[in-house]
Input
Amino acid sequence: MTTVGVVRERAPGERRVAMVPDVIGRLRSTGVEVLVEAGAGTAAWFPDEAYEKAGAQVVAASELYQAADIVLCVSPPEQPVRDGQALVGLLDPLRRLDAVRDWARRGVTAVSLDQLPRTLSRAQAMDALSSQATIAGYRAVLVAAGAYSRYFPMLTTAAGTSTPAKVLILGAGVAGLSAIGTARRLGAVVTAYDVRPQAKGEVESLGAKFLELTSVESGAGDGGYARALTGAEQQALQEELDRHIERFDVVITTAQVPGRRPPVLVSAGALAGMGPGSVVVDLAASELGGNVEGSEPEQAVVRDNGVTVIGAGNLPASMATAASTAYARNLNALLAHLVRDGVPHIDPADEIQAGVVITHQGSVVNPAVANLLDALGGGL
Output
């Protein structure tokens, strides 16, 4: 019988856990045994006792890594999985090429949910990027509202009437649409922009205005993502955006391109033109950069002109209970597809597995990752 192990996340600020007690029963129904590292769910308010009550066995990390056939994580653990083991999580293989090489050399089967073919209807229940982006967009608006020193809605009081906040959402993917809906529910006047023309209808269906820009033609890419803009397109877009950004009270940026540095959408010049008390939240902020020039990952910086810039690249971790529950359901759906009668069946020819299986039997089997390795030279 296959044994699945749930590890405790150790990255700074990460409070999520890959599996929650409510989903343990469904996971075990696929014919697997479940081990949970002691304390794995504590930061998300899931105690060890709840896992044991659900039928899992709580063990030390050393025992888990030794006994588990499949290791479940949010992000890759610092401790290497053993040779021949399977690792399933948000592995970010396009940016962790050294780890990919290591997994392949040691015969690890690496399965990454962030490479899921999101256009397949039967893969929707596995779509961890969307579930986490929904939370990020929602949370971003609450973070912005908490930092903004005025009201979001129009309010009429004995002291007078306050005007509603003017909010700009840059990027109308899952996170952007979630942010639009949340800001609208809080009473803000919302405008949004996306390089993909088809996003206009989605933006307007939520009651927001679509910002019409003329400097860049369609930025639609494969798989529902935006494509990477050329250098000239990026410069033209940024210059046109700069002229609009300064009239908004709150700007939330959500634009990311898989495997690439996030595009800069809010320049230092645009920040300088915003009014004191304005707030900018950068959902793409990471060690690679972000959508906002000068944003710092997981930090809030108040500029000299009174504009607050918040680097918020891992907001789902701040809402760990809901984020972990959604993620656990995504993982369970994926494992139900991979495990049959308690035994994993890896088939890179399957259209879902062709996306998510990165390494298997000593080779890099994911085409996008393999092509990137070849382009950089040397392969494995």
In short: The CA atoms of residues 43 and 327 lie 15 Å apart. The chain has two domains: 3-126+322-376, 136-313. The radius of gyration is 22 Å. The longest strand covers residues 33-37.
